[in-house]
Design brief:
homodimer; mainly beta; about 10% helix
Chain lengths: ~140, ~140
């Protein structure tokens, strides 16, 4: 469990400050309990940096107006598309272009870093119990 | 040397397409010859994903309107600020907020991934022989 957020939004609320400490992706992932439940761990410009533990299959969805970057920290991820798939191993990244249907699949647990526009809903608006609001992703 | 760019800009030029292949940060870094010479390896929304090999000291600079994310792939990086410093090891990231003077230092060679707004000049407009234009960063 993360005790506090060690980053500040560009338009940051009063009282927050930029901590003089790096954020470790693997350590942040260790703090996650649930699969498919991204947590915001930073922000760069209009993009959130998130971590997520995934296992199994997510859900087919797309983001009409935003690209989504997947970076594998540990484990393996397959991004399924209608016209093929991309296999990612640790240190690999892939940017799913806006508007492209995709389905993330991980046979075993996989730790991810994600870069997404602050407005992106991770299920692309697909109504599923797995959809976490941005407030939930911030609260962890 | 990278033979081609395996990504497409959001407003991508005709004829380019999204390759169905992940991009490995370490492999991209291996393709770099010079220190302090970032190369664009991807784009997510209005942000470039870059890799850079660094060693020694860069130059004090700031980006007035853009945050800059540093993620260490290998080696160690110190981000010096006027009011302190942040030490990064592999898997660590830090977002330098817009407007904050900083100086990246690496005692030994360090491999970085960077996330920066497509308009960011990596020296923050400081006139130094180390400044590489975006065209140079794209061409590698």
């Amino acid at each position: 469990m993360i005790k506090e957020y060690r980053w500040i939004a560009a338009d940051g609320a009063a009282g927050r400050r930029q901590e003089m400490e790096a954020i470790n992706l693997r350590r942040e992932l260790e703090g996650l309990k649930d699969h498919w439940s991204p947590r915001v761990v930073g922000r760069v410009n209009d993009q959130y940096i998130k971590v997520a533990k995934v296992k199994g299959e997510f859900t087919w969805h797309k983001h009409n107006d935003e690209d989504e970057m997947f970076l594998v920290v540990y484990g393996k991820l397959v991004l399924q598309f209608e016209d093929g798939e991309v296999r990612l191993e640790p240190g690999d990244f892939y940017v799913v272009p806006r508007g492209k249907l995709h389905n993330p699949v991980a046979a075993e647990e996989c730790g991810l870093a994600l870069i997404e526009t602050v407005t992106t809903l991770h299920t692309g608006g697909v109504d599923t119990p797995r959809a976490k609001s941005i407030a939930e992703q911030l609260a962890g």
